Amino acid sequence: MTIAIDQLDAPAAASLRPGLTDLLVDAVADGASVGFLHPLSPADADAYWSEVFNELAAGRRLLFVARDGNRVMGSVQLDIPARPNAAHRAEVQKLLVHTTARRRGLGTMLMSALEEAAAARGRYLLVLDTRAGDAAGRLYEKLGYVRAGVIPGYARSSSGRLHGTAIYYRDLRDTDAHLLGDTDAAPRWDPEPML
């Protein structure tokens, strides 16, 4: 298997519509918590990708795809906020790897490409969420993401069960700001020791 990771614009992504649709249906059928419930119809998956293509064309989203030839094996998206106070951050969304291609490093490869593109755009603070306890959380932690907390009962599965969602972030500047809190704020304690 020879994998290529590419950032796609709207026309290139649309040319892979059947493979992207299959990828999303496959992920949801395997239990991925990505906003849809099993069974996900190909028509609903196709409609979702149409929305993504529109956001790509508008410059509000980046899409990275892992391919083996023309076969879509995985994807990940970066949602880019337009508000002035969010010019330094972006949200990682829907890291998907086809069930036939897992445990081969594709998730890491996709995230690496996404992080490189985010940093090049000055989007150094990345946030994401995933179902608490999923293997994806272990991958994100391995890649340097910090788990900020869990929102209990956030997402419903196909069985009707509510699951917690873990919130992660990563500062691509490789600082230890996560240990210090809000790095732009004045200290919240008296720097003089009490005598």
At the fourth level of CATH, the homologous superfamily is Gcn5-related N-acetyltransferase (GNAT)
Radius of gyration: 18 Å
Q: In the residues, how many domains can be counted? A: 1
Outline: globular
- Per DSSP E runs of 2 or more residues, the count of β-strands stands at 7
Strand order of the largest sheet: 1-2-3-4-5-7-6
Supply the key terms.
195 residues, disordered C terminus, seven-stranded mixed beta sheet, Aminopeptidase, 32% helix, alpha+beta, 6 helices, globular, 7 strands
How would you describe this structure to a colleague?
By secondary structure, this protein is α+β, with helices and mostly antiparallel strands. It has a single domain, classed as Gcn5-related N-acetyltransferase (GNAT) (Aminopeptidase, 3-Layer(aba) Sandwich). Helix content is 32%, strand content 31%. It contains 6 helices and 7 strands. The chain has a 7-stranded mixed β-sheet with strand order 1-2-3-4-5-7-6, with helices on both faces. Strand 6 (146-156) and strand 7 form a beta hairpin. Helix 2 (17-29) packs across helix 3. The longest helix is centred in the N-terminal third of the chain and has 17 residues, at 42-58.
